[in-house]
Amino acid sequence: MSTHEDVFDVTIIGGGPAGLYSAFYSGMRAMKTKIVEYQAELGGKILLYPEKIIWDIGGLPPTPGQQVLTNLNDQARTFEPTICTSEQITELTRREDGIFLLKGTSGETHYSKCIVLAVGHGIFKTAKLEIEGADRYEVTNLHYTVQQLDKFKDKHVLISGGGNSAVDWANALEPLAASVKVVHRRDEFGGHESNVIHMRNSSVEVLTPYCVEELHGDEAGTAIERVTLKHLETNELLEQQVDAVIVNHGYKMDLDFLLESPLTFDTNEGILAVNEKMETSVPGVFAAGDLVNNDGKLRLIAGAYVDGAKAINQAKLFIEPDATSQAYVSSHNERFAKKNEELLKKEDPVHAGTH
Ligand SMILES: Cc1cc2nc3c(=O)[nH]c(=O)nc-3n(C[C@H](O)[C@H](O)[C@H](O)COP(=O)(O)OP(=O)(O)OC[C@H]3O[C@@H](n4cnc5c(N)ncnc54)[C@H](O)[C@@H]3O)c2cc1C
Fold it and tell me: Where does residue 76 rank: exposed (0-12), middle (13-18), buried (19+ CB within 10 A)?
């Protein structure tokens, strides 16, 4: 824990794509930068889909989420920002001298001249199966996300949920699992229409309107071996043998530190209003990524990058009003001169330094 006031130029709250790219850009603008992330790992929502292939980032071939995460992490560390993980910001205030104070769950106070909010939809807490004792199976065969498809090879899988994720995982697992059943409270499914049609036309068995009523453990009581489903109109009970249960009941969000801050932010249902420069209603606080809304907002990883660069440029001007309004392009930017030398030396040790 810091015993003195270590004041940063920029503190970025949230280590998803918006926060990580902002950290890189902030280093490029020679600002003393800190990232604070609630989770133990950086990456934000991409941590939820490490095996999915991402196609829509300009200039990048179709790439699995995990690789995009690794690239983003490496890029964010280019100018060695301070990184605090497993730290949730719970309070955001401003002192009379203008320094922002951020209180974290570790007990530490973070001091900063300005802030970039990159908290996406807030602390992402998976909505759990509301059945007493269900948590004991989380170490064996009750899953809230799919990290490795192979784990479900030749297994009888039951998925509970009717949103995008439930449909997606049903389609992804159908070719390799022994069987896939999807249990949902309604017969309408969320997600892309073509994915829902694909699921309905496949071997996936759709059970509606049902909910998961009870989990039955094996003899050792460590893994689920049967599930009781309840028909929501007739109350009829149905037993299913399972090897694995996946629950996709959505997420709960926590943006309390923003909503309860004495600084008044312009928010509406978890979305923060910003102008085209990514300025919030509080001077010195900028924002980027899924958290924000403005005209033409692009809710994509690529959109988060653009927001981040804009937010950082404004942060630079906030601290140094005489600074240039944008960073010089990276290919001609002096900040990279030494790093380019090192890269070229690695590639071509003989001709390095002649460029
Ligand atoms: C299943 C799925 C598939 C997707 N596929 C694609 C795709 O193919 N292409 C694409 O462009 N986009 C895709 N997206 C969208 C993309 O992931 C998001 O647009 C992107 O992650 C937004 O980045 P962000 O940094 O704004 O927010 P997030 O990724 O949500 O990151 C926010 C971070 O802030 C942290 N945080 C929140 N509150 C606090 C706090 N109080 N203190 C500290 N830390 C905090 C969170 O823990 C989180 O790590 C997909 C999304 C999902 C869910």
Answer: buried
